[in-house]
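Exam review. A common question shows you a sequence with its structure tokens and asks you to describe the fold in words. Practice with the pair below. Do the first one on your own.
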Amino acid sequence: MASMQAIEIAHPGGPDVLRLVERPIPQPGTGEVLIKVAASGVNRPDVFQRMGRYEPPPGASDLPGLEVAGEVVDGDFSGHNPFGIKRGDTACALLAGGGYAQYAVAPLGQCLPAPHGLSVLEAASLPENYFTVWSNVFDRGRLGKREDGSPETLLVQGGSSGIGVTAIQLAHALGHPVFATAGSEEKCRACESLGARAINYRTDDFVERSKAWTDGIGVDVILDMVAGDYVAREIEALAEDGRLVLIATLGGNTVSVDASKLMRRRLNVTGSTLRPRSPSFKAAIAAKLYEYAWPLFAEGRLRPVIHATFPAANAADAHALMESSGHIGKIMLRW
């Protein structure tokens, strides 16, 4: 059987447990395609998986990696193929695992053509963040318009992360005022360059600042990757009928809130994880991205933000950078 290089997790631990190995090339099944990977994205869930804190869903590859881009070289194209992808096309794909490899299998519905004008490396930086942001900000968070027709506001916690720069750009491009927190003046300036009003959470209070910027009303939607003690403060920052969407718990799993405030102000606290959702669920998000986001790349209103690229064999260095939180935007692996 033909083999490929891949990065596997030898055992739970630090970045040094990532090792370059030979694996058989995976074979696509019904409704799946095989991608010759040119680049893979590095994401926080990869780090958690490496630590032993985030198991792949049943049936997924044990290799880390949730997004890739490259040439479609084989597969089943006979079923639903909304974007007309064919053998030889350059596509990017959302995966449930297996992206740290020279070849990866993806459901056809989770593959999107590389946006016009973007390199294959840039295309590989898109799926995990754009699928996550669309699903949580626009579907679960229902970011839209108020009764008077004015655009709702969004607060992004961790605006300089891969998720953060995506949420800022996408909401801003669709006409929404965006506020974002970050931990340094450099990161705040980066958020501002993407369309947000930035708050340095080390020196300023995001509740007071967001209330001041909204004339005391509060923000309509908050995208939160922190949880923990942040949640009670986010309740204070929300407008009436506001929505708080949790997508990670970097600040802790346990939260304490005043339930009466949720009831009196009709607030909605929700959350999700994307990785274990069905291919049909993810395909529906892909269709929304193709309709609403992909044209914005061609127009230059959205752009990938890539902080650093490493040879795939140096995945441990990429993980160390991710854990340092010293990056602004995406960290990538190149094959």
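Now try the second one, then compare your answer with the model answer below.
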Amino acid sequence: MFCIRLLQKYLPLLVGTSMMAATGAAASATWVYISNADSQDISVFQLDRAAGALKPVVTVPVGGTAMPMVVSKDKKFLYVALRSQPFRVVTFAIDGATGGLKKLGEASLADSMANIDLDATGRWLFAASYGGNKITVNSVGADGLVGPVQQIVPTAPNAHAIHQDPAGRYVFATSLGGDNLSSWRFDPKTGQLSANDPALVNVSPAKTGPRHFLWNKTQTHAYLLNELDGGVDVFAYDGSKGAMRHLQRSTVMPAGFTGKPWAADLQLSADGRYLYGSERTSSTLTTFKVDPATGLLQTAGTTPTEKTPRGFAVDSSGKFLISTGQGSHAVSLHPIDGATGVPVAGASQPAGKNPNWVEIVDF
């Protein structure tokens, strides 16, 4: 009788706890979004870490040449820039439970944009135009929808990437044809860029083609990938002035490779211990070990991947790298060796046509 009473007393609590645990497990998911330029759609996958697999979920049409993307910091919205006319950015709402995308609206962009990003407040969208030699700012409403172009700023030839520094004070943009990064102050109240002093970070040697760049989490160093020679530059970063001082030059080109360099993307692991770069001619990923004290790089290994790997991303656990192949129309999930940080051979599966950008979102 005593046992029955105990069961009656605690059974609801046990059941409730079990249901909460099950609900939490069901609500936990990681979604992967791949933009496909030529099929004009977004491939949605679920990353199953336990199984080490990418599971197809849905394909979402976008009605244009889908290329650069960015996810809002609150994970509510995915923004996709279309590089076919009319040039525009599409706002999607992300369903955290299913990974699905619901189109909310479109807004005009000033040109074909090679890169887009959001400011720290989420109220402004930056964009860089390779063919238009310009950077721009669009407003973003409280509802997440992108609004009109607020500012257009001419740059040196072939603006390629634009990002705000982690502190939210300065904005930088690469000029592939001008061999520099332009440096800007940004006013989040007005959404206006104004030239910093110094206004440029020059990159040498000439004609290396500054392309993609990023900062480490501690905001002490910046890393720059150069498209035309595969060089990787390391800079010391002074966040109080928005200034960069060159420290080191390395390369993503595989040892002994004699083809024409065509470097593409650059990503850091979440813990900042490893830097990764993709190179399209050799279809390889290069891994660098990052010295936590100096920020300097040491090459750790090279991994074959999908043909013409334009874009890739590293998951938040640091255990997987997802690489797209513009030439293979496929995507690879590479497990990462925990001891070396180097991705191992990946499992390839079809994506859309000309996959080129990856965003990973944890819920």
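Model answer, second protein: Residues 1-26 have pLDDT under 50 and may be disordered. The helical segments are 2-27. Full marks require stating both points clearly.
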